[in-house]
Amino acid sequence: TKPTQHSVKTLLEIGLQPDVLICRSEKHLTKELREKIALFCNVEPAAVIEGRDVQSIYEVPLVFEKEGLADIVIQKLNLKRRKPDLRRWTSFVNRVKNPSGRVTIAVCGKYTDLLDAYKSITESFVHAGAENDVAVDIRWVKAEDIQHYGADEYLKDVGGLLVPGGFGERGVEGKIEAIKYVRENNIPFFGICLGLQCAVIEFARNVCGLRDANSTEFKRTINNVIDLMTNQKRVKNLGGTMRLGGYPCVLVKGTKAYKAYRRGLVYERHRHRYEVNNNFRQKLARKGMVFSGLSPDKRLVEIIELANHPWFVAGQFHPELRSRAVNPHPLFRDFVKAAKEFAKESSA
After folding, report:
1. Whether the model pTM is above 0.70
2. Any catalytic annotation for residue 320?
3. Which residue among the candidates 108, 123, 177, 193 is catalytic per the annotation?
4. For residues 29 and 27, what is the distance between their CA atoms, to the nearest angstrom?
5. d(CA 343, CA 223)
6. Cα 160 from Cα 185, distance rounded (Å)
7. pLDDT for res 347
8. What is the pLDDT of residues 99-158, one digit of tens each?
9. Is 318 in the active site?
10. Which of 50, 249, 320, 329 is catalytic?
11. Which of 9, 121, 198, 290 is the most exposed place for a label (fewest CB within 10 A)?
């Protein structure tokens, strides 16, 4: 208890008297420990809350509720008490801890040495996995490795591939090669932001026959299927001037995107300057690319998919930022479902 006592003493020295102490611990706090901490830290014994290690961070609210933390806070703030309904949360935690199956999904990016860069994506897979009653095992694949060693070694046994957002040319060719592999092998694919742009470039090169297709962000060619948005071409100050925040997206009925969202108008969060070049939309569509989500004025492509593929969907936005524990993002949910089904069929 000494470190706790010293911490509280330091708080008292600057005029702060804690009302509640949450004590991080690897083990259960005994009654004697709680009473000793309460005595020397001048708090009520009931206000010494156990914050022991748990298997999943999503268990923490359940542990604190069992410890009575919410009741203490409500009492201290003189608020009206309501009994929380934690049935959905408890069910979610149980599925996270005890899934009925597992599925491996590759994430091909260039920041795989710093996985915190993809934290929102990692948690979105937890949410979507629980909804599908599976644990998602993420296989982190460095895009440059695919560029050097080929896609088969890394993707031949996965249930799906996600290509996340990013900036800059490094690793892009590896991402494009990975997308080509899953498209040709009917492996479920989900692209986010740059992932959509790489999917369009790959399709333009290998299906539409535009061999030099690229983005103006990386290389200028006569077939820049990805280009700066019109209103971005005049921007000189690059600080905070991207297309940022929530924007509406109108979905096309009968598409995988519409089936996932189950409605025709959605709002998603954006962070980008480049978009599908409208000069190539007809050519891409003739070869089978479906523009299943558009801005209300139909000038910006928000979602693309392939009609002749089991599940090949990409969005220009960041769905991982809108996923929640008991309310997974619809595209993540359906992507994991498709990966689960593909893995089951592949192992049959």
Report:
1. yes
2. yes
3. 193
4. 6
5. 36
6. 11
7. 84
8. 999 999 999 999 999 999 999 999 999 999 999 999 999 999 999 999 999 999 999 999
9. yes
10. 320
11. 9
